[in-house]
Amino acid sequence: MASRYLVGMMPLDLLAVPKTDPLSIYRFRDGLYASDLLTAALVHLDLFTWLKGRDASVEEICGHFQIHARPTDVMLTLFNALGYLQTANNRWSTTLLAEEHLTKDSKWNLAPYYGSLKDRPVTLDLLRVLRTGKPANWGSYSKEEDWHKAMEKPEFAKSFTAAMDCRGVYLGAALARQVSLEGFHRLLDVGGGSGVYACSLIAHHPHLKATVLDKAPVDQIAAKAITERGFEEKVSVSACDMFQQDWPEGFDLHLLSNVLHDWDEPEVATLVHRSFGSLPRGGMIIIHDAFIDSDKSGPLAVAAYSVILMHSTEGKCYSISEYETFLKKAGFVDIEFSPTVMDRGVMTARKP
Fold first, then answer.
1. Are 103 and 49 in contact (CB under 8 A)?
2. Rounded to whole angstroms, what are the CA distances from 55 to 44, 48, 79, 221?
3. Measured between alpha carbons, how far is residue 187 from residues 205, 226, 286, 317 in Å?
4. What angle do the packed helices 69-82 and 58-65 form, to 10 degrees?
5. SS3 per residue for 75-120
6. Where exactly are the structural domains of the chain?
7. Longest dimension (CA), the chain
8. Which of 194, 170, 182 is nearest to 14 (CA)?
9. Beta bridge partners of residue 348, listed in sequence order
10. How many degrees, rounded to 5, is the angle at CA 140 between CA 134 and CA 146?
11. pLDDT, tens digit, for every residue of 157-186?
């Protein structure tokens, strides 16, 4: 990690647009662990050989291999997007591509080509995640706890927030350009990290005021970053555990940007319900994230990104239809989705 954690920025920086497209740079990092998951499935599980000739449900796959539903969903979605598996009526089977090149009884089997990679640390991490359902340590922090616990430590929180902040400068501007916020006045950026998304929305929609909601020690990091950017008069910080403490009221906009993908389904449902309960009538929730297609056939870049989330957090990339279900169950209406940039998108919904 870099030694400095945030670079001072003036408000106009958040309105700037780069002349070049960094998509390939994002995708290299976001998809870094996808090959390790393929290695784990090939060398350790021999998934494709077992599935050949079968038409199996997720439950049957989990039962046979003694693996958990969340990481299994990520694995199957990735292989669907790659064209190795196919699904119909919630049952999974191999494609001809997999049968010819990923099964033991094929003369074109390429599984041995991956054999020398079987003990790669991330491959073994992913195997453990599949078998336990629990996240591994974050990135290269071999002696660190999982991400959720590590974020309670100031030095880790500082470096992690810096990493998300540099990404948010570009993604936040694209989000702000995509959403129409006329008629809204106060934004609560839930789990807002450095506050870069709140600042971007304020820069593009100057009639708004915002508060970044995050727990210690991230709240202090956010306050410094907001001041460095020159937004301290319009963006404040509130220290709060978004699961355990009441959310402040008086906000007609809630933003959850790259937050829900860190959590399993019960926690996602809890946060969406908490948003609904805290918003006034007519208020709007904004979910900014990387979205899987409703049929879980892709996009490949998002399916690959979901692997790193499955590895290091309790979550994954959720599909458009899964988010719609969370929102409808909470009581939201007028659900809309649109893509932004870098394989990300935005979903909005209103409280009637």
1. yes
2. 21, 12, 15, 50
3. 11, 15, 10, 24
4. 110
5. HHHHHHHHCCEEEECCEEEECHHHHHHCCCCCCCCCHHHHHHHCCC
6. 29-132, 152-296+316-350
7. 67
8. 170
9. 286, 336
10. 30
11. 788 788 888 999 999 999 999 999 999 999
CA distances from 314 to 48, 51, 130, 240 (A): 26, 27, 12, 20
CA 230 to chain centroid, in Å, comes to 28
Structure tokens, 227: 């001041």
The CATH number, out of the four listed (3.30.750.24, 3.40.50.2300, 3.40.50.150, 3.30.830.10), of the domain defined by the range 152-296+316-350 = 3.40.50.150
Residue with tokens 């950017």: 229
DSSP assignment of 144-196: S-BHHHHTTSHHHHHHHHHHHHHHHHHHHHHHHHH---TT--EEEEET-TTSH
Q: Can you tell me whether residue 230 is helix, strand or coil? A: coil
Q: Tokens 């609904």 map to which residue? A: 276
Q: Which residue(s) pair with 349 in the sheet?
A: 285
- What is the per-residue pLDDT for 154? 77
Q: What is the pLDDT of residues 244-265, one digit of tens each?
A: 999 999 999 999 999 999 999 9
Residue type, position 264, single letter: D
CB contact at 8 A, 257 and 175:
yes
Class at the top of the CATH hierarchy for domain 29-132: mainly alpha
Q: Indicate if the pLDDT at residue 327 is higher than 70.
A: yes
